[in-house]
Prior knowledge:
The chain is an alpha+beta fold. Helices cover 57% and strands 9% of the residues.
Amino acid sequence: NEPSLKGAKDAFVESLRTNTSLVRRRLRAPELKITESVVGRQSVTPVDILYIEGLTDPELVKEVQRRVAGIDTDQAFQPSTLEELIVDEVDTAFPLVAYTERPDRFCAGLVEGRVGVIVDGLPLGYLAPVDLGILMKSTEDRAVDYLSASCLRVLRYLALLAALLLPGLYVAMATYHQEMIPTKLLLAIIESKREVPFDTVFEVIGLLATFELLQEAGLHLPQAIGTAVSIIGGLVVGTTAVDAHLVSPAALIVTASAGICGFTLPSRDLSDAVRIWRFALAILAGAGGLFALTA
């Protein structure tokens, strides 16, 4: 699921010993330490904690070991078990640990001083702690020159802002702050909305919901059928809705642009959190304009 253009093509599998050997293949130094715990009363699942002695903060290692040992559940073969039970706060949509199926990215995190966790039965490696900079970093950034990587990272941050704020800004300006829109653009928006029966906020929320439904349908269907559903939903239904004057072209462009920008984020968990907050910010903008959006 994580494409590699210039990097290695191997990936973690469900076998714990295979995954630790993939890590040992890249990090042969004796400072790489692996400690094992058993989690789950019924599943009795082995969990390995990996770190590099001398690079990783010992207190961080002890804290991760304490939290893994403190997991009290019947089964530990679901990703949510580890992700929810070893973090400080679960009342947030934003990820607090990073996961990867690529051993090279996992080893790069260990070398940077983070703690890795591998669970038997999961083809994933977890890294903790993480911040926004880590979640916005792609493994392919290391495969190109620094200038290209820097430009791509700046573009990625701009895409993050657009995916999060663009629908809310459009709703706020079109509903409350028309003076912020250039005159020609405002006239075009007014002309396109003349025969649309819905308010701007309902247009945007409806289009965002439709976009999420199409994405979920394409995700859970077989690949060939999912691609066909996405094409039919995106092109046929979208074009027909505009021609039938159910939505305005401007709202459709804004929603589609925000969705495309969300696909550029390297972390799927971060993208999911942005999708949730995109709805919240659009609703707030419809309720109170830029003041509510800023608040």
